[in-house]
Amino acid sequence: MTPAPHQLDLFWDDASTRYDFGPGHPMDPVRLSLTMSLVRAFGLDRLPGVTVRAAPPAGDSTLALVHDPDYVAAVRRAAASGRPDPAHGLGTEDNPAFAAMHEASALIAGQSVAGAEAVWTGDGGRAVNFAGGLHHAMSGSASGFCVYNDAALAVARLLELGAERVAYVDVDVHHGDGVERAFWDDPRVLTVSLHEHPRTLFPQTGWSEETGGPSAEGGAVNLPLPAGTGDAGWLRAFHAVVPQLLAAFRPQVLVSQHGADTHLEDPLAHLAVSLDAQRAVAVALAALADEHAEGRWLALGGGGYAVADVVPRTWTHLVAIAAGRPIAPETAVPEEWRAEVLRRTRQQGPLRMTDGMPAEWKDFDAGYDPADRLDQAVLATRRAVFPHHGLML
């Protein structure tokens, strides 16, 4: 049976591609424009119930929900002068200053905040901002290619609107440190991050024993995965932790971050996850939002530096899933889009919407291998947080 279409607000503004750290930087904005082109090539923007919207940039009062006013002023200064400001993480190798830095960052933040508002005030609706998910930015500094933390701002806006329980699930290869830090001691927010182990990857945080502040013990959940983890382990870990915690926490809204840099082709990390497993997690999160959050789901993008082969396909799947019209993995990629990829990147575009992997895993509760590093990681996380939520190990 064909699923019914969902009401979906897809937030997109061409000016989001002005978030551009310059030639040679991994965060190439072509990944955003190619994603939107693939969304259009599949006609997802014209589906019943789908509205493509552009929201205004986040203003200073909105940015102040997470960021220090002095930091926002520093971003403006660095953008105007181009001078490094290491104290605020600006003008560094990761975060070079550029002229549109404040405006482009505030614009991406504005889309995520508007997505949060649409999800909260709507009737079980969904929203996607794949340009968002800039989860490393801290209250007073840029970090890891992230200037303003749109994900944290979206969560903060939900709390401002009256949400009492917000769950944030981050499946980027890097630890969702900025969002975790923003709500470290806030019992209204559950942050869950699955990421490569901090021993082998930036930002070297996100250990299983990092579980939240004294007023929110168990409110921060970290599942650090061994380098080299592939589909079976990644999916096993996700399903061993996330559904149980969401069932116990009973969020009123789910915010998720879908960094595509877990992929085996990503040049900046060391997991070996396929497009098919990334798609499977998006399907699972959609179902969990329906089951536990009355359908309220805001999905964001994030990292991902295989800018032509991986990122556009992953996030197009995300948009299709959120719209209730998932694309079958074996579907051929439209030829006109492949021609655009070749024209803009000099790379051959992928042929199908799959890596040809089964996206299968073995349930953790059906058997634990004490010698397996992945199972050790899962058990360490469950031991650290499950008791705080009344869950059995």
UniProtKB/TrEMBL annotation:
Signal peptide: none annotated. It holds the Pfam family Hist_deacetyl. Gene3D superfamilies: Histone deacetylase domain. Pathway: Ketone degradation; acetoin degradation. Residues 25-320 form the Histone deacetylase domain. InterPro entries: AcuC, HDACs, His_deacetylse_dom, His_deacetylse_dom_sf, Ureohydrolase_dom_sf. Belongs to the histone deacetylase family. PANTHER family: HISTONE DEACETYLASE HDAC1 (PTHR10625:SF10), HISTONE DEACETYLASE HDAC1-RELATED (PTHR10625). This is Acetoin utilization protein AcuC. It comes from Streptacidiphilus cavernicola. The lineage of its organism: Bacteria, Bacillati, Actinomycetota, Actinomycetes, Kitasatosporales.
